[in-house]
Specification:
Elements lengths: L2 H11 L11 H7 L12 E6 L9 H10 L14 E6 L6 E6 L8 H5 L5 E3 L5 E3 L9 H5 L6 E2 L18 E2 L5 H4 L7 H8 L5 E5 L6 H8 L2 E2 L11 E4 L2
Length: 240
């Protein structure tokens, strides 16, 4: 947009002298461009079939690391956007292996506790961290019941151009937002899982009744992790 157009929109947005938490000038600029930004008609989500997720398989984790420029986690403090966990039913002894990442809640507690607005939810349901606003307080890490966020302790090198990261910031799964905003319709983890022949991860628009994920959610029983908290996660699990 033109400089004059941007200044006009920015002035209107700043009329109240203070920006609301989570609002950035870039979003004000995008609001003046028809079709720009995330659509509130969409809600991106995942359905993970745990019966197809093999113990010891790390295809989704490896794909996430490669896509976003993360090194394989060797210590508990190393950043990790997806982690594989093994769970066991105490009464029956039944076990399951499943990936856990940011659950992209409709009511994310990480956003509620962030003092700077660095943690925010897009109109399409994707929960993100603005590294320019993050002060590294880690309140969001304490608030997340899924332990899905990591803190970057060390300087970073060889970063991906589409995935800016920074020392002293909190980060987590972005549902490959950089791919979606370019028109790609799937995440790196779902793509890798499909290519490997597992088919354990279905990604798509939960608000589109004709999408594969919506059809699957209607057809099979699925579970939200810690549904008792009422956070309405966008990631669902089948077979738990």
């Amino acid at each position: 947009m033109s400089r004059r157009g941007f200044l006009g929109v920015a002035a209107a947005g700043l009329a109240g002298a203070v920006l609301a938490p989570g609002i950035r000038l870039i979003e004000i600029a995008q609001a003046a461009t028809p079709g720009a930004g995330a659509s509130p008609k969409v809600r991106w989500g995942m359905l993970i079939d745990t019966s197809k997720c093999a113990e010891g398989c790390t295809d989704c984790v490896d794909a996430c690391n490669a896509e976003n420029g993360l090194a394989p986690a060797k210590r508990s403090t190393d950043p990790q956007w997806i982690r594989k966990i093994e769970i066991k039913e105490v009464k029956t002894g039944r076990t399951a292996s499943l990936p856990v990442m940011c659950q992209h809640c409709a009511d994310p507690p990480c956003v509620d506790v962030c003092p700077t607005g660095a943690s925010f939810k897009r109109a399409d349901g994707i929960v993100l961290v603005d590294r320019h606003s993050c002060i590294g307080c880690r309140y969001c890490m304490m608030a997340c019941p899924y332990k899905a966020r990591s803190f970057v302790h060390e300087p970073l090198a060889d970063q991906k151009a589409d995935v800016p990261r920074g020392k002293g910031c909190v980060e987590s799964c972005t549902l490959c937002v950089h791919r979606l905003d370019k028109g790609n319709k799937t995440t790196a983890c779902a793509e890798a899982c499909t290519k490997a022949g597992h088919g354990a991860i279905v990604f798509g628009d939960l608000n589109d009744p004709a999408s594969e994920i919506s059809r699957r959610v209607r057809a099979v029983a699925s579970t939200q992790l810690r549904a008792d908290l009422g956070l309405d996660p966008g990631v669902r699990y089948q077979g738990l």
